[in-house]
Each structure stands twice: as C-alpha cells, then as structure tokens.
Write a structure and sequence with these properties.
alpha+beta; Beta-Lactamase; Jelly Rolls; 2 domains; six-stranded antiparallel beta sheet; elongated
Amino acid sequence: MRRPITSMLLSAVACSAFTHAQAGDIVNRPTLTLDGAKSIAATALHYAQEHGAPGAAIAVVDAGGTLLYVERVDGTFQNAANISIGKARTAVLFGKPTRVFEDLVNKGRYTMLALPEVAPFTPLMGGVPIDIEGQVAGAVGVSGAASAAQDDEIASAAAAEFARMREARAAEVTVIPRATVDAGFAKDVVLLSGEGFRVNASRRDGPGQAEVHVHDTDIFYILKGSAELVVGGKLSDPHQLSEGELRGPSIEGGELRAITRGDVVVIPRGVPHWFRHVDTPFTYYVVKSTRPS
C-alpha cells in the first residue's frame, strides 16, 4: 500500500528533527584518563615527600567524580584515603577548591553541612579541580599531611604542575608549512628531527642501494608513484655507511612487495630493504623511530 505524500514528508521532517536533536544533545568535554590520574598522584606524592609531609593519601577522580586512582603512604591514618576521595569529588562536582567551602563553614554558614543529602560533600581543605581549556576535567584530593593547609598546598601543586606540563607539551607541537614540505620533496630533506624520531620528505628518481638500519624503524607513506620493494633476505657485499646503517648493491633472497600511492609500509629495525624498481615521480613521507644505541 502506498503511503500518502503528506505522511512521507512528515516522517522525513520528524526524522530530520530527531537527528538534529541527537546532535545537539551531545557535548564533548575533556576528562582525565588513568594515566593522567597516576601522573597527578605521583606529582603530589613527590611534592609531599620534598616538603616534609608526615603522610599523605592522594585520590584523583574524573570529570564525573568517578574514582580513577588512590594511593595512601604507609603510616598515614587509615581513613585518609576516604577523606581524600571525598575532597576530590567535592572539588570536581562543585568546580571549586574545597578550601572555599571550609572557609564558608568556618564563617558560620553551617547549613552547607546538610549537603551530603544531595551530593558528596567534604568541606575540608585539600581538594582542587583539574582545569583543561577552561573546563573541569577531574580533581585531586589530599589528606593526611601535617595540616589542612599542607593538604591544600600539595593538591594545588599537583594540579598546577599537571597544567604546566600540558602547556609545555602543547608548545612543542610543530606545524610545517605546505611550502616547506613541497620544497622538501623536491630536495629529499629531513623536515623535523627530535628525540627518538625523524620525519623526512623523501623522493626517489630510480632504484637505490639495499639498506639495513640497525636502530631505526622506518614508516613509509607513499604519496606518488609505485615501486618494487624487496624486504628481508641478506645484504649482498655489505659495507658500513655509518654506525647504525649498512648498505649493499642488492639483496639475496627476500620477498618482493609491490607498493603504490596510499600504501603505508613499516620496516622494523634490522630488516634489509631495497627499492629494486621505481616508477617516477615517487615521493613518500618517512618517519624514523630511533632506538638509542
């Protein structure tokens, strides 16, 4: 039975509205991971030890207040872990350091002590939110140090160091302009070199020598052209080009791999490889992951 056009149109509009509503109902926000939580806890413990804290329990929660990690130093009183969790949850769910709430209670606003009925609430100094790009992504809570003020000092130091490390990593991000990249492919150059890696803009105008990289794993991404790549086998008549690289005119044995535009090739360190034939123009990115000798 055919459906009326009006009914079909209404269904389409309803579907479109539902899809739009779904898209508008989803918000992406940053939240701590387990690795991030462990990093914050380690920073807090180190700070506590460096500043003579007699003990400490550190708890880290994610953006929703879920406990990610907790650690209690030997000798710290037993309930310190639970108190640190309460501080962290209070800080993240209210988006403020718990020192704010302790100060309010101390100034006579005792009605705040009724809040446990509606939300976890520990109005004791030592809980500090973790801010990422203006949003609360988690929190750290500390208990068991020499004083409430030192609890707060340790938590604040850990949160500040986490923010500083994130900013330092962001400052290390490198963007290489397209003009530089294009010029690099014309010359076969290293675009970027750092600790443990190197990025090359590479080109081949014909077959080359067989190679073995002792320390480098090569990752190729083919942009243009195609080639016959021989991998494995044994380098013929090898000679040492440098401390970490062997060369030879060809490979004895090995496997032939046909590679072309769009392929990604990973050659582990120590594996012989040889571009036996190349259809030009042949350009490719090379990322070298280097293991120290």
